[in-house]
């Protein structure tokens, strides 16, 4: 029968670890006797008793490690560690006692001068108890190390999964912006074509410039708030081509700092929402205000809801909230009170990588 190289390597590795562990246990006992009695009995290490003790250690480790591997194969779920231990502890006691019995029988009966009946009479319970306790301590120690390693690996995998899910979700959210912007822009253009073809031409020219900005920024996590405000002003100028004096805009960018950032196209989405959900006419003007308060950039508008409104895609505000949630613990502030709707966008600083 041909021996598999992998099995042979595993056997040699287990044998080597058994020898190292047995030697380590022997050194611990030597240190104990040295501290307690002040000397060491060197002759003991040359005796058969020492040799048998080394065999106990090597075989005990190999048997218990194989027992643990077998239990793991039958109970593969790391969350069922109590079940594993309930199998390992009695199993370890059984295989250790049998191992001690077989080794003693091998040396005292087969290679010794005792008969089997004499061998049975000379067995001491203390030998079995001590060897079993050592095997259990070593086995449980390896179990503790294994559980700790498995726990850390599980944490790493969990974090990788969270990061992967967040990245996928973020990409999905960003990909929604492009068609959402185009859909609403085409709606505006359709209205201008009917009302004023000349304005529609101007709108189309400006739209191409804005769309270039959208394509450049949509794949970024954050953009400077000052840059996003300039884009919002261009976008609002386009809206004025359609709504003229019916749309009143106030932007205060005097307190915006260079290191303050927001998610790209967030202002445009909030402005679109305000236009979509409210009446905009010369009789009922829509007032949009963008101003910084503390560490937030607020976009507010007076509430004058449309009586008939098509089905909402649900992309605008929820998109902004979800994208901020993936980047920071800072919450998007939403206020709907006193006839005014207000959304506060956290201003974030990009941390430099060391």
TrEMBL record:
Family matches, as InterPro entries: Bact_2-comp_sensor_kinase, Sig_transdc_His_kin_internal
One Gene Ontology molecular-function label: phosphorelay sensor kinase activity
Transmembrane regions listed in the UniProt entry: 12-35, 55-73, 85-110, 125-148
Protein name: Histidine kinase
Signal transduction histidine kinase internal region domain boundaries: 168-246
Pfam families: His_kinase (PF06580)
Alphabetic keyword roster: Kinase, Membrane, Transferase, Transmembrane, Transmembrane helix
Keyword Transmembrane helix tagged: yes
GO cellular component terms given for this protein: membrane
Domain of life from the UniProt record: Bacteria
């Amino acid at each position: 029968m041909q021996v598999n190289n992998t099995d042979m390597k595993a056997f040699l590795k287990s044998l080597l670890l058994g020898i190292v562990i047995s030697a380590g246990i022997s050194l611990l006992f030597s240190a104990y006797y040295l501290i307690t009695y002040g000397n060491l009995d060197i002759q003991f290490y040359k005796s058969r008793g020492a040799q048998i003790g080394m065999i106990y250690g090597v075989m005990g480790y190999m048997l218990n490690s194989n027992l643990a591997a077998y239990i793991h194969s039958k109970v593969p779920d790391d969350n069922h560690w109590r079940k594993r231990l309930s199998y390992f502890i009695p199993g370890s006691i059984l295989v250790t006692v049998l191992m001690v019995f077989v080794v003693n029988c091998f040396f005292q009966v087969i290679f010794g001068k005792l008969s089997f009946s004499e061998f049975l009479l000379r067995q001491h319970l203390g030998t079995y108890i001590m060897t079993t306790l050592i095997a259990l301590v070593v086995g449980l120690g390896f179990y503790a190390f294994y559980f700790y390693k498995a726990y850390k690996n599980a944490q790493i995998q969990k974090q990788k999964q969270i990061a992967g899910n967040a990245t996928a979700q973020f990409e999905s959210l960003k990909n929604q912006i492009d068609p959402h912007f185009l859909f609403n822009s085409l709606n505006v253009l359709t209205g201008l074509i009917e009302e004023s073809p000349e304005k529609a031409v101007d709108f189309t020219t400006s739209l191409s410039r804005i769309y270039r900005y959208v394509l450049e920024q949509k794949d970024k996590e954050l953009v400077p708030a000052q840059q996003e405000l300039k884009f919002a002003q261009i976008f609002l100028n386009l809206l004025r081509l359609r709504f003229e004096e019916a749309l009143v805009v106030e932007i205060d960018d005097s307190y915006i700092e260079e290191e303050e950032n927001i998610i790209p196209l967030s202002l445009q989405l909030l402005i679109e929402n305000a236009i979509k959900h409210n009446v905009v006419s010369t009789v009922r003007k829509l007032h949009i205000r963008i101003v910084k308060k503390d560490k937030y950039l607020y976009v507010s508008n007076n509430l004058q809801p449309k009586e008939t409104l098509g089905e909402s895609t649900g992309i605008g505000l929820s998109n902004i909230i979800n994208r901020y949630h993936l980047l920071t613990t800072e919450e998007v502030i939403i206020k709907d009170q006193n006839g005014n709707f207000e959304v506060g966008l956290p201003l974030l600083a990009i941390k430099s990588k060391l």
